[in-house]
Amino acid sequence: MLGHPVSSIGRWLPSAIAPRLRWRTEADGWLLLGFDHIQGRHADLSTGSRDLPLIADAMSAMARDLAGCGAVADRLAPQWARFAPWRRLAKDIPADLDPWACDNLDQLIIWESRAVEVAEGDSLVHTDLHSLNILISDGRATVIDWAWSRLGSAAVDVAFLTARLVAAGHTPVAAVTWAENIPTWRSAPFDVRAALAVQVWGLWERTGRERPRPLWTKITPAARAVARHQLGLV
């Protein structure tokens, strides 16, 4: 596990956002990291949850405090360009792919290209926000497990979590309305929101087919619902 990315970005994470990295040591090819202990519970993303305003506050702080922070991490945009979920799905269209997606793959590929452009940025973004990576303690939300963090646009994390909210029972309208509480999303124009929603759907659509798990049967339809809403289709 030598060279785990958290070792290089831990010092950039403010204690108001994430557990503070206290020490690191290497032994037998393993990198060991010691963080502050947080006594808390996993976030509740369901409708009516009192955790939602706390999560919005944490995400607003992430966008503000991790912008241009100088952390050393891979850039997200080139990674997305290489993965190219919609372009790859179009080359070998799955028999069970959503009918609307089948009929509009050309448009989805265009939105995918736009997503690569708008994902570019100098903020440190988590890219894997879900209830298990958010701890609620002492009236605030703390974000853990930054192993998949990348440099990009802070709007990316909002796009991912919006789809997670739908998977937790929110309507797309309610999830997008919640996202308006976060300045980086509130100021994002239509094409940015739509492109990121289409990309999240594509990422989960392709990944779920390559690495099948029960998880994808829940979150991929949620991402599809958000993307269709952002595109004005529902």
Strand order in the sheet with the most strands: 3-5-6
Number of strands: 7
What would the CATH topology be? Aminoglycoside 3'-phosphotransferase, Chain: A, domain 2
Task: Tell me the CATH superfamily.
Answer: Aminoglycoside phosphotransferase (APH), C-terminal lobe
* Major β-sheet profile: 3 strands, antiparallel
Radius of gyration: 18 Å
Mean model confidence by pLDDT:
93
Approximately what portion of the residues adopt beta-strand conformation? 5-15%
The tally of structural domains comes to: 1
Low-confidence stretches: none
Instruction: Determine the fraction of residues in helical runs and give it as a percent range.
Output: 40-55%
**The CATH class:** Alpha Beta
What would you call the shape?
A: globular
In CATH terms, what is the architecture? Alpha-Beta Complex
Order of H and E elements: HEEEHHHHHEEEEHHHHH
Distance between the termini: 45 Å
Helices, by number, come to 11
Structural class based on helices, strands and sheet pairing: alpha+beta
Key structural traits:
two-stranded antiparallel ribbon; 234 residues; globular; alpha+beta; 12% strand; Aminoglycoside 3'-phosphotransferase, Chain: A, domain 2; 49% helix; 3-stranded antiparallel β-sheet
Describe the 3D structure.
It is a single chain. The protein is α+β, with helices and mostly antiparallel strands and 234 residues long. The chain has a single domain, classed as Aminoglycoside phosphotransferase (APH), C-terminal lobe (Aminoglycoside 3'-phosphotransferase, Chain: A, domain 2), CATH 3.90.1200.10. The chain is 49% helix and 12% strand. It has eleven helices and seven strands. The strands form three sheets. It has a three-stranded antiparallel β-sheet with strand order 3-5-6. It has a two-stranded antiparallel ribbon with strand order 1-2. The longest helix is centred in the last third of the chain and has 21 residues, at 190-210. The protein is globular and about 50 Å long. The mean pLDDT is 93.
